[in-house]
Specification:
Rossmann fold, 9-stranded mixed beta sheet
Length: 291
């Protein structure tokens, strides 16, 4: 597997450390990013960066996508470049909708390529530690073939079933990220406004069935209202919430809770929090008092 040339597309917050990790583990990897300048750090490590996506698709045997969204995938990989997928494999790791992954697979297969979706759960620290949770959807044989590569990125690699099932699982998990963050922000704001000891509140919460580890993960950021250096910015949460609303709508699932979270996220973006960590949702719930 390591001798095969990998073309890695999308070196953003997650893609950059993923590409770096694979390179340090001895994979034959080259990269492309729509903003070429963002590949500078990887180039200093010795990773070749391409300014032309077609060139990298042509040269690689395995193409990994960590592009920002479906539009980026469509514009970079599924335009006139789609015909270059003959005999190649696309490992699609970006978070997109169920039907979007099915559409990507259809285009890749029509052009003689193979496809596996593999969205991830985790952020930058888990990438660096190799402890991502990775869900795959598509042909079971291709899952088994690519599993050694995925095992080098994650500590848990699970096969969800046919194409679209991993995307559905990923969006279901991200729905919990959004809703739990909004719910915890509300509770934390309430106890703080009433002068309740936060440590006491957290002690009770940790010892109850209501606890989720993400609460402690984001607690200090919320208490300090410090949301710099995000692992996942708030603007990306809005993208995922919109995907979730689209999927729940198509499935006939009532989504008033998610719609409310979307409104909170949009308020956060209007407050200028788009590039801040998604836990900045707290500032859009427990709005800071003006001095």
């Amino acid at each position: 597997m390591k001798e095969k040339k990998i073309g890695f597309f999308g070196t953003g917050l997650m893609g950059y450390p993923m590409a770096e990790r694979l390179f340090r583990l001895g994979y034959n990897i080259e990269v492309y990013n729509r903003t070429y300048e963002k590949t500078g750090g990887l180039q200093k490590l010795g990773i070749k960066a391409h300014s032309n996506p077609a060139e990298l698709i042509s040269e690689a045997e395995i193409i990994i996508s960590m592009l920002a969204d479906f539009n980026a995938i469509r514009q970079t990989l599924l335009n006139e470049n789609a015909k270059l997928f003959n005999g190649k494999t696309l490992l699609q790791m970006s978070t997109v909708g169920v039907k979007e992954n099915i559409e990507i697979e259809k285009t890749v297969r029509e052009n003689g390529g193979r496809f596996l979706e593999a969205p991830v759960l985790g952020s930058i620290p888990q990438v660096k530690e190799g402890t991502l949770i990775i869900m795959t959807g598509g042909e079971k044989e291709l899952h088994e073939e690519l599993k050694p590569l995925l095992d080098d990125l994650g500590e848990k690699v699970v096969y969800a079933g046919g194409t679209g099932k991993a995307a559905a699982m990923k969006l279901s998990l991200n729905q919990l990220i959004a809703s739990l963050t909004a719910a915890f922000s509300t509770s934390l704001g309430l106890v703080r406004e009433h002068g309740v000891d936060v440590d006491l509140f957290m002690d009770i919460l940790r010892n109850s069935a209501l606890y989720a580890p993400t609460f402690d993960k984001k607690l200090n950021r919320m208490l300090e209202r410090n949301f710099e250096n995000p692992n996942f910015p708030l603007k990306h949460l809005l993208k995922d919430v919109n995907l979730i609303l689209n999927e729940t709508g198509q499935a006939g699932i009532k989504s008033e809770v998610v719609q409310s979270v979307k409104e909170i996220v949009q308020r956060g973006l209007a407050m200028g929090l788009d590039e801040e960590d998604y836990s900045s949702l707290y500032n859009a719930v427990h709005i800071p008092k003006k001095i």
